[in-house]
Fold:
Amino acid sequence: MPARAVQVFGPTTVDPGFTTTGEKTLLTMATTLPAGGKNVILCVMTSPNLSTSTARGTLRIYKGTTLLHESIVDNYLWGQAAKPRLLFAVDDTPAGNDVYYFKLNLTATATVTGSCHVQGMVVKADDAAWVKNTTGTAVANGATATIATLSTAYPAGSKVAIVASIYGYYNSTTGTQNVIGAGNYRLKSGATIVSSNQFSHGSYSNVEPAWIPLSYLETPTSSTQSYSIEVYNNSGYSYVFFGEIVAFTIYDGAFLDTASVALTANTQVTVGNLSTTLQGDVAVIALGAAENTTTTNVTAFNAGGVVLQINNDATTQISNQTSWFIYNTGTHARSGVLSMFRFDSNLYNPSYQVKMTAAASGLNGEAKILVFKLPYTRIMSETVSMTDATVRSSRVVRAEIMSVADVFFHDWLYIAGDVKIDDDIIGEYGIGYKDFAREGLPIQTLKHVVYDKVILDGEEIGSVGVEWDDKVADLSPGERFLYVISSVELVED
Structure:
């Protein structure tokens, strides 16, 4: 089943305490998502510019006390403020209302501390596929190497969202300034490069890695797919790389990958603007990249300087919660990419913008915006007496009448619920069926009536039914589905 629910946590700031070692919780993600399927957990962290700091550590994602994934590279905070770090994991066995933690495991301390920007997103995506490499891939200077490959078997014609994160280091303990050029950190579909870094980006040493996230949306033409991340190393030095890829199908979506856009100091510039025809509940994974072309280390953006907006609305924008420091163009940390997440409900043809207000001159920006819609869910319930339930075969439980605007958002058509006695669930019923997609054509009213049996201890004790008027537009080719979730409670008369 394609992605069907999303929750976003943050953005916010946290000072984990860089003066002591040990695990530090950066973000707690207490979900209300149902059990079953798979949950994709995406987390981003931007460290403060502690220029004299020797603090270093790894990033971790937990489900409760179970470690799902850890970044392999033990990396310094010093020199890494320019490089927001995206880490993700997949939970294959969600129990429902799962709690995830994004943590920093500090192995060395600093004499000062500071606040980090953090944000998280959890996607309920039953067909999510994930690959990561826990053993580094050596990439010699001048070589091209595949870091990780993900094989999937999604139906031809489906829509597939892909997110990747590549990180790796110049294989040296002494350190030298170097970068890998634009377009050389790559996400591929088959043999085709579908996404890559806009700006050159590198590593100073084995504890100051490069870190590049990438994204893409495609509609495969065959029923087997191969997604990979690779690096062409033109830095002049040998590297060791790690990475991960996650893919999942979506009902519908849109994607934008911009070119480089020159920024003007103290002026907000729209780096990317993606218009969509999506309707209903919509999630966004945006990547905002920036580079410093000057010879000066700068605070490139103050807090709130990089934003993800919907419909050019600044009141609900997602933004960086701490300042973003980027080093000069001759350094490994001359660029970085900030991941931003958002989720909005009850939308009609929304547009999304990545905007940047540079705090210094000589900066460029770029954006990748991945947008995907989710199924619309309606909740309703009714209490039915034990006696009444036995004669419901000739009567119905009447659902509320749906508005025209509501109907435009329905994607999954499935009626399900619990059967209860004295607040205890003793069984369940489910009715699923298909219907045609509606577009903005002349309005008509259709009546739907669906019945199902009520079973108690293996015995049929009656039936339940749902009837409603569906005010919709004329039929057009395709299918749509709707979740209508309800419960039947059996009460002694």
Q: What stands out?
A: The radius of gyration is 25 Å.
